[in-house]
Specification:
The complex is a heterodimer of chains A (about 350) and B (about 450).
Chain A lengths: L1 E6 L11 H21 L10 E5 L6 H8 L8 E5 L3 H9 L5 E5 H10 L3 E10 L4 E4 L13 E4 L4 H13 L7 E4 L2 H9 L5 E4 L3 H7 L3 E5 L8 E7 H6 L1 H19 L4 H11 L3 H9 L1 E2 L3 H8 L5 H15 L21
Parallel strand pairs in A: 2-3, 2-4, 7-8, 7-9
Antiparallel strand pairs in A: 4-11, 5-11, 5-12, 6-9, 6-10
Helix pairs in contact in A: 2-9, 2-10
Chain B lengths: L2 H56 L3 H11 L5 E7 L5 E4 L18 H10 L3 E4 L5 E8 L8 E8 L1 H52 L13 H62 L5 H25 L2 H6 L1 H16 L3 E5 L8 H21 L5 E8 L2 E8 L14 H12 L3 E6 L7 E8 L7
Helix pairs in contact in B: 1-2, 1-4, 4-5, 5-6, 5-10, 8-9, 9-10
The chains are: A alpha/beta (about 350), B alpha+beta (about 450).
Chain lengths: ~350, ~450
């Protein structure tokens, strides 16, 4: 029998649709919208450029060159230019900047008090650019005994001086050290206020051009004087893409600079360093800037070569009483920004 | 568009309008705030730098002045900061490349024409030009060795902060929009659950009531709609109660009429028939030609008596009152078989006698009306009536072959079926018209009535 028409008593208005599906679906959608709206109601973080401190040193001029050629847009990376390299370490240590170009011995000094330092790239090795210079007529280090020597304390200068004295078998107190920054040394030396200076590029080449004599240089230190790019750990985890772009820009600029470079940007670099064309070539020859592949080799592996070098430098610095102890941290370098 | 869509849509539209207005105002406010902060920062840095530079340069601490400018570069949105000597040559700069260069050769050349006036007034100035893209701060100071004042020049980028203000305002507006969308969706769901569906139930309820059914309560709850639903249900309940009372009154009136017909009219006709018969016999003895007429009157009175008794039986089935539903149905089927010539059978569960009298009366009347209908309209070759208990229901089934019952042709609107429906409602039952699938076609009308638990077995 087929039901033709049915009259029945009962509850009216029963919907044939699966109401609960609509209800649950709608509730989920509404919750998602409300949740997202609520969570993102607060203003987003301000998009600010990555702040990178650099001193006046030819190796880090790649970043200036990258900025001038458009490889590093100003709205993405803000270069904070310091007149001398130890100032960059201070700015980095005080979290004023996100990244900085500092020397390896400065990294070891930073690791004494902090564990959030990450080395992401080796910018360059000094091949004679950091040197102990003195006035003509002085041939050996022992002849400098008691002479006024300008040196930047807590920086690569003190490491170079200690190594030089160690090699010559002289004690720390055999020279009269005058603490000053690199930018001041040239003026002080030329004014006759100093007999000797422990300086770096571009002042080494500039002072040599003015007659200063080299008694010791980083050429005899087996790559122990090198500059690296350091980043705070939190910045690395929050802005890895920005760091990768910065590193990539350095390598592109390095390649372009070694190939001759763009004239306009090169002029800016030379003006910053206060160097003539010839002196610029000399400065570049006093430096070894590893490329991306070499950087990968230095920073990667079970025992990264840079780690071995740092151990060696740390032991030396401990012996020279420049460092209290070798750093215990082992994860302070990473090659993850070099992968691309 | 339904109300439950219209209201959230109106709320969403109004909200979106507010968000758009809010976005425009917010963007403007953020830009203003950003500009004001930069302005204050420029004034503060310019003043500080000019005083510090004056102090450092008088003491010959040029490197310290360089370092100061390096740290000024950390100021947000600073494009360039320089200290110029009296000849507009850059002595110190946040970007070292500009040291020793004439100010005219730097990106700050636009400020050069204004320097003379600023030096003359010896007052620092903060200004925005050109076209609101740069904010300048120029603060003069005297260095020891020169008579023409040195100047600190700071240049801030205003385009970046504008973009940032737009980005922040847009972000906030998107967040608000999503929140509003979610809120509107929740509102829509609430309106749908709390109002629209319940009103739809009341509407369906009203249609069912209009078609004769008595559904339950259309809407419950302590709110206004719940109260309306309850009041509606109460009113319908009262209506059904009145209807039941009317049916009972009508039934009583039928009984009274039937009894009057049987006890009075039928007796009088019977008496008249007897007298007409006697008259006919007397006239025949006298060989009167009127004896035939008297005999015919007696026969017609006999027919009239049969008809009147039939009406009386219909109006007040004596067997129902005396012997119960089973006997009444037997009488009724016999009478209808005789009246319409359609074989009619009934199969009744004997326990129907335990039903209350009013229920038996209603069931009898329903069966009577449905069977009469089938006999009259279906051209049936048989009619079966059955009464059986199914779980907690009593099922009255009237089955016939022949023409199918056409629901749309109007019989439901006839007086007879309306009365059937009223009786079904009075019993809180259901009435189903089913097509008979067996050869010969026909209809099965089923009336299902709830019964007390003790009767279901």
């Amino acid at each position: 029998m087929k039901e033709k028409k049915q009259k029945t008593s009962g509850k009216a208005g029963e919907s044939p649709l699966p109401v609960w599906i609509w209800g649950v679906g709608g509730l989920l959608a509404a919750s998602a919208f409300l949740l997202y709206g609520t969570l993102t109601w607060h203003p987003p973080d301000e998009v600010r450029p990555l702040k990178v401190a650099i001193g006046v040193w030819p190796g880090s001029e790649t970043l200036i060159y990258a900025r001038e050629t458009g490889l590093l847009p100003r709205e993405e990376v803000q270069l904070v230019e310091m007149s001398w390299s130890s100032a960059t370490k201070v700015a980095f240590a005080n979290r004023v900047v996100d990244a900085a170009v500092v020397s390896l011995d400065e990294v070891l000094r930073l690791l004494e008090s902090r564990n959030d330092v990450r080395v992401v790239m080796v910018v360059g090795f000094s091949k004679g650019g950091d040197a102990l210079l003195t006035r003509p007529g002085v041939a050996t280090l022992p002849e400098l005994k008691g002479k006024r020597t300008g040196v930047e304390m807590n920086s690569v200068g003190s490491f170079v001086l200690s190594t030089a004295l160690e090699e010559a078998g002289m004690s720390e107190g055999s020279l009269e050290t005058v603490a000053m920054n690199l930018a001041e040394m040239e003026t002080a030396y030329l004014a006759g206020e100093l007999d000797t200076v422990v300086t770096g590029e571009p002042w080494t080449t500039r002072l040599k051009a003015k007659g200063a004599v080299e008694l010791f240089s980083s050429r005899r230190m087996n790559r122990e004087v090198c500059r690296v790019l350091v980043v705070r750990e939190e910045v690395l985890s929050e802005r890895p893409d920005d760091i990768e772009r910065l590193v990539a820009a350095h390598f592109k600029a390095r390649q372009s600079l070694l190939a001759g470079g763009e004239a306009k940007a090169l002029t800016v670099v030379k003006r910053r360093l206060g160097l003539s064309d010839d002196d610029f070539k000399v400065v570049m020859s006093n430096m070894d800037m590893p490329d991306s592949a070499e950087n990968l080799r230095l920073l990667e592996g079970e025992v990264p070569p840079l780690g071995l070098l740092a151990d060696s430098v740390a032991k030396k610095m401990v012996r020279q009483k420049l460092l209290a102890a070798s750093p215990k941290a082992e994860d302070w370098m990473t090659a993850e920004c070099l992968k691309e | 568009m339904t109300l439950h869509l219209l209201v959230p849509a109106a709320v969403a539209c109004f909200g979106m309008a507010l968000i758009v207005v809010g976005y425009l105002r917010n963007e403007q406010q953020l830009r203003e705030r950003s500009r004001k902060e930069l302005w204050d920062n420029a004034y503060r840095e310019g003043t500080r730098l000019s005083h510090i530079a004056q102090h450092l340069l008088r003491k010959g601490l040029v490197q310290a002045a360089d370092l100061e400018l390096s740290y000024v570069a950390l100021s947000p949105h600073l494009a360039l900061a320089v200290i110029c000597d009296g000849d507009d040559v850059v002595r110190h700069a946040s970007q070292i490349q500009w040291r020793g260069v004439s100010l005219k050769e730097t990106p700050l050349e636009a400020i050069v024409p204004r320097l003379a006036g600023i030096r003359k007034e010896l007052n620092g100035q903060v200004a925005i030009f050109p076209d609101g893209e740069q904010l300048w701060a120029v603060f003069p100071f005297f260095e020891r060795s020169t008579t023409t004042p040195f100047v600190v020049v700071l240049s801030y980028d205003l385009v970046g902060p504008k973009k940032e203000a737009t980005r922040l305002a847009r972000h906030e507006s998107i967040s608000q929009s999503l929140g509003l969308l979610g809120g509107s969706l929740v509102l829509w769901m609430m309106l749908d659950a709390l109002i629209t569906r319940r009103i739809a139930r009341i509407l369906t309820y009203a249609k069912q009531v209009a078609s004769g059914r008595s559904p339950g309560v259309p809407a419950t709850g302590a709110d206004e709609i719940g109260a309306v639903g309850q009041a509606f249900a109460d009113t319908v309940g009262q209506l059904r109660s009145t209807e039941k009372q009317l049916l009972e009154a009508a039934e009583q009136e039928r009984w009274r009429l039937g009894m009057d017909l049987h006890d009075d009219i039928c007796q009088r006709i019977a008496a008249a028939q007897l007298k007409a018969g006697v008259l006919g016999v007397s006239l025949a003895r006298e060989n009167s030609p009127h004896s035939v007429l008297a005999k015919q009157v007696a026969e017609q009175l006999s027919d009239a008596a049969d008809i009147a008794r039939g009406y009386a039986r219909g109006l007040a089935p004596a067997t129902l009152d005396r012997d119960g539903l089973n006997a009444a149905l037997r009488d009724m089927t016999g009478h209808l078989t005789k009246a319409f010539g359609v074989p009619m059978h009934h199969d009744t569960d004997p326990r129907v006698l335990e039903l209350p009298d009013p229920t038996q009366v209603h069931l009898f009347r329903i069966a009577q009306e449905l069977a009469t209908n089938a006999a009259k309209h279906a051209r049936a070759s048989f009619i079966n009536i059955s009464l059986a208990f199914r779980d907690r229901f009593l099922e009255l089934k009237v089955e016939s072959d022949g023409r199918r019952f056409e629901m749309d042709s109007g019989p439901m609107t006839g007086m007879g079926l309306q009365l059937v429906n009223q009786r079904v409602r009075a019993l809180s039952g259901r009435l189903l018209f089913l097509e008979r699938d067996e050869p010969g076609g026909g209809t099965v009308v089923v009336c299902v009535v709830p019964v007390a638990p003790r009767l279901d077995h």
